[in-house]
């Protein structure tokens, strides 16, 4: 089987001119397929959890957590970018939106090899992120080029929690240089639709196995704290942990929460870069 080759990367490597027919996003026109828009208060886990809930796999605390994430009025989850894709023919009606979305995010900027299994199998990197070559065979491009080096997209479409993504103002743009927002590169749109279909079917087959479903639920709802190793390294570097971290930070470490104090988070960043120097005393403000 011939390995997949990205046509856009091939054009760059051979110094051929890029596709001049790419449509740049324009805030004055209506939202179209391939546009990157905002999904308000949405978790990256939601599209996969919706499939699991529909099959009756979620129970107890997992079901309660899903209902909290799926509630349109809840503030759970971030306002994140997403790619607009077509809805299946049987979903086009007056009661349902005429498009679905594929959620995008940074997955806490976790290294590709450290991602939970569910994301290693089903998330697709967004260039300039190329993912882990061992587990991520494909990647996609946006136009203009995506600004996040750790960008990912979940190729399992879902209906948005609210209809606010329909408006032209909902286009994702955080840059003065790019006021008109982003689009999925036109050359890759048909390819991306095929990948969405394949990944969705693969996910549905995977959750039929109870052990896989259990692991995916834990990965999606109760993932390990990505800061945990760094906090532990910082704690181990100073025997007198009480003089270095406040009680809130130690509690955050033990309960898989994000550290609360700025100084603790700064120490974690320094741990990542190898620049950590234990201070004499720290107070949480």
Structure description:
- Residues 12-32 have a biased composition (Basic and acidic residues).
- Residues 10-32 are annotated as: Disordered.
- The chain is α+β, with helices and mostly antiparallel strands and 285 residues long.
- It folds into two domains: 7-221, no CATH class; 228-273, no CATH class.
- Helices cover 32% and strands 11% of the residues.
- The chain has nine helices and seven strands, in the order H-E-H-H-E-E-H-E-E-E-E-H-H-H-H-H.
- The chain has helices at 7-13, 46-54, 60-70, 117-122, 189-206, 210-221, 228-236, 247-254, 262-273; strands at residues 36-42, 78-86, 99-105, 124-125, 142-143, 152-153, 183-184.
- Strands 1-2-3-6-4 form a five-stranded antiparallel β-sheet. A two-stranded antiparallel ribbon has the order 5-7.
- Helix 2 (46-54) crosses helix 3 and helix 7 crosses helix 9.
- The radius of gyration is 21 Å and the shape is globular.
- The relative contact order is 0.15.
Task: Give a quick summary of the entry.
With 285 residues, this protein is of the alpha+beta class. The protein contains nine helices and seven strands; from the N terminus they run αβααββαββββααααα.
């Amino acid at each position: 089987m011939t390995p997949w080759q990205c046509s856009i990367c091939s054009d760059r490597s051979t110094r051929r001119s890029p596709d001049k027919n790419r449509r740049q996003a324009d805030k004055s026109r209506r939202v179209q397929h391939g546009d990157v828009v905002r999904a308000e208060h949405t978790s990256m886990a939601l599209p996969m959890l919706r499939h699991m809930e529909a099959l009756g796999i979620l129970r107890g605390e997992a079901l309660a957590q899903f209902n909290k994430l799926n509630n349109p009025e809840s503030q759970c989850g971030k306002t994140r970018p997403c790619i607009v894709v077509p809805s299946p023919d049987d979903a086009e009606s007056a009661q349902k939106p005429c498009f679905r979305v594929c959620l995008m995010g940074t997955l806490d900027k976790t290294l590709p090899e450290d991602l939970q299994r569910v994301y290693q199998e089903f998330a697709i990197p967004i260039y300039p992120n190329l993912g882990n070559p061992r587990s991520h065979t494909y990647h996609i491009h946006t136009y203009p080029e995506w600004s996040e080096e750790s960008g990912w997209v979940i190729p399992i479409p879902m209906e948005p929690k609210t209809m606010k993504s329909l408006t032209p103002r909902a286009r994702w743009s955080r840059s003065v240089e790019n006021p008109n927002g982003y689009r999925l590169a036109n050359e890759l749109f048909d390819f991306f639709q095929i990948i969405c279909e394949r990944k969705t079917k693969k996910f549905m087959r995977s959750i039929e196995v109870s052990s896989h479903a259990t692991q995916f639920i834990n990965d999606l709802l109760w993932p390990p704290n990505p800061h945990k190793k760094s906090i532990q390294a910082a704690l181990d570097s100073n025997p007198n942990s009480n003089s270095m971290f406040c009680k809130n930070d130690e509690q955050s470490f033990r309960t898989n929460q994000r550290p609360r104090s700025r100084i603790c988070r700064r120490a974690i960043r320094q741990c990542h870069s190898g620049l950590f120097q234990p201070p004499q005393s720290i107070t949480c403000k």
